[in-house]
Amino acid sequence: MNTPAKTDTGATAAPTAIPPAKNGRGRMMLIVTVLLALILIVYGIYWAIFLRHYENTDDAYVAGNVVQVTPQVGGTVIAINADDTELVHVGATLIELDKSDAKVALQQAQAELAQVVRQVRTLYVNNGALVANVDARTSDVARARADLARRTELSGTGAVSKEDIAHAASALQVAESGLQATREQLASNRVLTDRTTIDKHPNVQRAAALVQTAYLNYARTSLPAPISGYVAKRSVQVGQRIAPGTPLLSIVPLNALWVDANFKEGQIAHMRIGQPVVLHSDLYGSDADYQGKIAGLAAGTGSAFALLPSQNASGNWIKVVQRLPVRISLDANELAQRPLRIGVSMQVQVDVANADGTSLTSSAPARTVPAYQTTVFDTANKEADALIARIITDNAGNNGTGEARHNEDKQDDHPSHRTAGRVRS
After folding, report:
1. How far is CA 261 from CA 268, 273, 275, in A?
2. How far apart are CA 420 and CA 267, in angstroms?
3. Dist CA 101 CA 80 (whole Å)
4. What is the pLDDT of residues 34-79, one digit of tens each?
5. Residue 132 CA to chain centroid, in angstroms?
6. Beta sheet of 241-242, edge-to-edge order
7. Which helix (H) or strand (E) holds 46?
8. Which residues are CB-contacts of 303 (< 8 A; sequence separation ≥ 6)?
9. Which of 40, 42, 61, 44 is nearest to 52 (CA)?
10. CB contact at 8 A, 111 and 103
11. How far apart are CA 177 and CA 287, in angstroms?
């Protein structure tokens, strides 16, 4: 402590002044403290007005459809028309298999169908022949009945013996039995052709199904691209013997990507479907931003759908903050200008200021068409139907689909058919 010094005369000297350096340090500390306080106040205001309405994460990755190309029939690969990183269009032939076995099976099925059509055609022709036989047998019965009647009338005059009358009666019985047998043959044959036409006949339909199966197996030896996109993960090689369902390659459509952002469970309280999202990818530098929207929130956390989910009820338990995947749709025009790749990491910022929506879809979307669809396999079915129709037409002759039914209707009106119907009943 500084005490006033005494002089020889007994007077007290003035105290020593504080160095200016200490006063400057105090003022500097005060200024720094005030500035820090102002910065904290400004940041608090900025957070309250702006930052608290945003949720951020860098645990986000680009996702998309990975369409596997798999064969529907087995065979040996003889040609591969696309390789990794190449763009393929829907319907383009990617892989070709050896067609030899399928071609032989198709030819055999075609021959079988042609033979069955001709056999069924013969059934319709036999209807007419049996009708004529019924008419002939009916005439025989009428003639035998008339002969018996004449002989019976002359039996009392002695001009006709009893033996002749017995022979006439036997002849009538034989004629009636022949008529009955012919009617039954007609009824049996008409059962095979009743209420149908050649092309709708069960035998023809069964043979046609075999042709369609053989044609589809033949057509499936060429594997088309089910969707337009880029080839990835090609594992097939020329000469390889493959089985149905073997993954050969994948196609990735880069024009339909989305982002799966994994937010902590404490960040999703105010997230709603439709909220705007700003995304950034290092793929194109710091200035490349994408605009997106929340498309939906997953039904469970990532750990719930893991291959080996955690069992929190066993042993000691430590709480681990879980993350919930949030699906974010991207703008198609921005994707066309700056294409992304599946698996690329993204930085995501969601604006949660407007929390009036819902975090779950209230109902199933009203779709006029499926969400994902391909029609490249419909061509084979149409070609198979055309092939079957041509085989039937070539082998049905004049008794085609319409004319056979017309002939059958005319046969229904024939008196002998009506008689045969009574016999069957």
Report:
1. 11, 14, 14
2. 86
3. 20
4. 888 888 887 787 666 666 778 899 999 999 999 999 999 999 999 9
5. 56
6. 222-224, 93-97, 75-80, 241-242
7. helix 20-49
8. 309, 310, 322
9. 44
10. no
11. 102
